[in-house]
Every structure is written in C-alpha cells, then in structure tokens.
C-alpha cells in the first residue's frame, strides 16, 4: 500500500509509474482517490468543529438546567440538528474511507529508479553473464516428462486422476530426490546464509493475503475454502511475512531473516494457451522461500544478498542459469524491484523461471502494519520486506533431470545432493 502523503504530494510521479507499469487505466482511480481524500479532510475538519460546538453547547444546557435560570429547549433543538449533521458526516466519512482503502489496495507499488522502463517481458534486462556448467549432452535428449515416465519417478497421469491436471506425483527415487532438494536448500540457507528456519501453515486467513498484497488484486488465483474462510497459500511469503503483522519491532532485532519450506497452490487461471506440460505449469509445487525484514536503508543490499543466496544454490548444483532484472511492464504489482532467476532446459531449449527475488520496500509493511522503533523515544517507522525463492523445485527439477541425464536414459545425482539422497544415480532398472 502506498503512503497517502506521497500520493498527495507527488501525484505526477505516481501517474508516470502507472504508465511505466502499463497500467494507465488506474490513473482515474488515482484522481478519484485524491478527490475523495480532499473531501474527507474537509469533512473531518467540519465534523470536528461541530463536535466541539456540541460539547460547548451541552455544557451550556447543563448549566441552564442546573441553575433553573431559563429554558434550554432552543439549544436542545439546535444540538439535535447538529447531531444529525454529525451523523451524516460520519456516514459519508465511512463511505469515503472504504472507497479510498479499496483504491489504495489496488494501486501498485512505486518503482525503484534502477528498474528499466519496458512494456513486457521481452524488455527485461539480462543481469550479469549467464552461468554455464559443462555437462556431456552429445546424445539424443529426453525431456523431463519422458525421463520421469521411463524411470518411473514421476506420475502425472495418476496425479490427474487423484486431483486433476497440474498436480504431480513423485514416486520412489523421484520423491527422494525432491525431498533431498528441499533439505539441501533449507540447510544451505540456515547453515551458510544466516536464515532462521520456520515451518508455516499452508492455509491462511484473508487478512494475511491482504498483508502481502495477494488480496484483493490476485484473489482469483488463490484456492479458497469458503466454509472456514481460509485460503491455500500461493507461496510461503504469505504466512511468513504475516508472522510479524501488527507488531512493533525493536531496531536491534533487524534484520530478521527466515527460510521456510512449503507446498504452494496456484489456480493459474490465466494460463490458457501457455505451455502446461509436466512441471512447466502446475497447480501445486514445492518451494523454499527466503523472507527478510530490514530497516529501509538496508533493504537494497538485502535484495542483492537474497539474489546471491538463490544463485549459490544453483552454483552448488551446477545448474546453468541467468538472472533477469525485470522491467516496469513485467514486474509484479507489489514489488519495487525484482530479479528473476531462470534455469536452462536443454530439452525445451529455453530458460525457465525458478526464482523471483523482490524488494517491496514498505508496501507490504503498510498493509500488514509492521513497524520498528529505532530507539525508545523515536516515532515508529515501517520496515522494508523482501523475499526470494530459494528455490521453487518444479522448474529446477526440469533442468536438473535434463542436464544430468545419461546416454543410457538414467539421471546422475549432483554431488551436492548425494549426502541427502543416499544414491548417486537413478537408472532405468531402479
């Protein structure tokens, strides 16, 4: 959520931001918000004046009745009229504040100056040089679906029977490999990168979705259990960020760094016409998430740290990847700056997103009311929140299986995962 003061003081900056994000349709909402804000402030002043008048006259009425010096009927009638006017103003204020909040919740975050201006994903910038590793792939390649089926480690057909398309089943050494990836990433982030592990709920209330920005803008992408008013999480970012919702943190506690595994659930309602085979687009997948709470002045270094921690996983696994700095037309509504990390799929012959690392500045903290105090006397400030996938296993598994396949149709286990799997290769006879 943006600061209303920023919108009042710099409306042209926000209009430019909306156009850079390819959201010019939101400009009328901004104008409406500013008009309603001006009306609200005027009404508050008038209401306060009437309430002050009512308080003074109420004392006069009490004195008249106490002294018996005359009739207070005229004053009582006058105050009844004032009370009616105040009630009407309060009703209008409630309506204005509701409308303003709806608009504030819908407006996207402002962009960091380093975010390139662009219309779509085609204008994202490659950040640094793509990272390559030598894997002997001089034989006819199988894609991850063919490998998974021939090795008996993935079963999308039975997953579809049980739940529907987009719900994979890992079998045997495939399940062990998936679990190894999760444990390896958690151990790396907690033992090497300074994160505290948490294991959050996989269902949250609406206030939690609101706090991180998934509600109401992305409500259509979230699975809902209406009887309990709970929602399946689209990412561990939601429950982990909301651990400190409504809290006032001491500056000595910052930065706070959490790493969390969770299953993630996404309806992918807008995926019609996109590539949906196998792991390329699923409704349930596993992910290790990194979440940070920092002081404002530290958040952009923290973003570089999170990106580096995600890259460290891929380097350890020797998975080829590249980093993209997202342009203004492709970045999510909540983020002020975002890096995507994409792994290379040799069978698909394209990069696949496996991680997104974002700085939200105080956008989420305002929604979730997460503040800190620099000392015992200073005014509370909003923290900056950040997160990054460290990493999502589905697309990562695509790249791992395809890069480590053998001419015999097996899959070698990366050296970093062997202590977690207990085996070094998945063979056709396994």
TrEMBL record:
Residues making up the signal peptide according to the UniProt record: none
EC category: ligase
Subcellular localization, as worded in the UniProt entry: Cytoplasm
GO biological process, one term: selenocysteine biosynthetic process
Pathway stated in the Swiss-Prot or TrEMBL entry: Aminoacyl-tRNA biosynthesis; selenocysteinyl-tRNA(Sec) biosynthesis; L-seryl-tRNA(Sec) from L-serine and tRNA(Sec): step 1/1
Coiled-coil boundaries: 36-63
Record domain Aminoacyl-transfer RNA synthetases class-II family profile: where: 143-414
Keywords: Aminoacyl-tRNA synthetase, ATP-binding, Coiled coil, Cytoplasm, Ligase, Nucleotide-binding, Protein biosynthesis
GO CC annotation terms, alphabetical: cytoplasm
Protein role: Catalyzes the attachment of serine to tRNA(Ser). Is also able to aminoacylate tRNA(Sec) with serine, to form the misacylated tRNA L-seryl-tRNA(Sec), which will be further converted into selenocysteinyl-tRNA(Sec).
Listed NCBIfam families: serS
Quaternary context: Homodimer. The tRNA molecule binds across the dimer.
Protein name in UniProt: Serine--tRNA ligase
Name of the gene: serS
């Amino acid at each position: 959520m943006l600061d209303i003061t920023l919108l009042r003081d710099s409306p042209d900056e926000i209009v430019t931001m909306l156009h850079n994000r390819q959201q010019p349709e939101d400009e009328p909402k901004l104008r409406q918000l500013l008009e309603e804000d001006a009306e609200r402030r005027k009404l508050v002043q008038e209401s306060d004046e009437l309430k002050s008048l009512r308080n003074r006259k109420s004392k006069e009425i009490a004195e008249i009745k106490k002294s018996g010096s005359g009739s207070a009927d005229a004053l009582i009638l006058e105050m009844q009229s004032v009370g009616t006017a105040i009630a009407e103003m309060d009703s209008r204020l409630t309506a204005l504040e509701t409308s303003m909040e709806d608009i504030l919740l819908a407006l996207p975050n402002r962009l960091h100056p380093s975010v390139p201006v662009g219309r779509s994903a085609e204008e994202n910038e490659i950040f640094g040089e793509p990272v390559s590793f030598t894997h002997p792939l001089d034989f006819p390649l199988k894609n991850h679906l063919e490998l998974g089926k021939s090795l008996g480690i993935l079963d999308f057909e039975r997953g579809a029977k049980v739940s529907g398309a987009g719900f994979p089943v890992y079998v045997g050494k495939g399940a062990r490999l998936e679990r190894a990836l999760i444990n390896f990433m958690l151990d790396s982030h907690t033992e090497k990168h300074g994160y505290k592990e948490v294991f959050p709920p996989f269902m949250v209330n609406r206030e939690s979705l609101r706090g991180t920005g998934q509600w109401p803008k992305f409500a259509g992408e979230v699975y809902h259990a209406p009887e309990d008013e709970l929602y399946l999480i689209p990412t561990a970012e939601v429950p982990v960020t909301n651990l400190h919702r409504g809290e006032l943190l001491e500056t000595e506690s910052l930065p706070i760094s959490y790493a969390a595994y969770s299953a993630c659930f996404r309806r992918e309602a807008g995926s019609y016409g996109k590539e949906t085979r196998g792991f390329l687009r699923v409704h349930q997948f596993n992910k290790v998430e990194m979440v940070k709470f920092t002081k404002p002045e530290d958040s952009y270094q923290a973003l570089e740290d999170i990106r580096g921690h995600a890259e460290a996983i891929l380097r350890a696994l020797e998975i080829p990847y590249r980093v993209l700095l997202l342009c203004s037309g492709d970045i999510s509504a909540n983020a002020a700056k975002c890096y995507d990390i994409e792994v290379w799929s040799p069978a698909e012959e394209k990069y696949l997103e496996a991680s997104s690392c974002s700085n939200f500045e105080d956008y989420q903290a305002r929604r979730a009311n997460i503040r800190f105090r620099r000392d015992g006397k200073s005014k509370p400030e909003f923290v900056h929140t950040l997160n990054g996938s460290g990493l999502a296993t589905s697309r990562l598994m695509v790249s791992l299986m395809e890069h480590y396949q053998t001419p015999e149709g097996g899959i070698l286990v990366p050296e970093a995962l062997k202590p977690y799997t207990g085996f070094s290769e998945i063979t056709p006879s396994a």
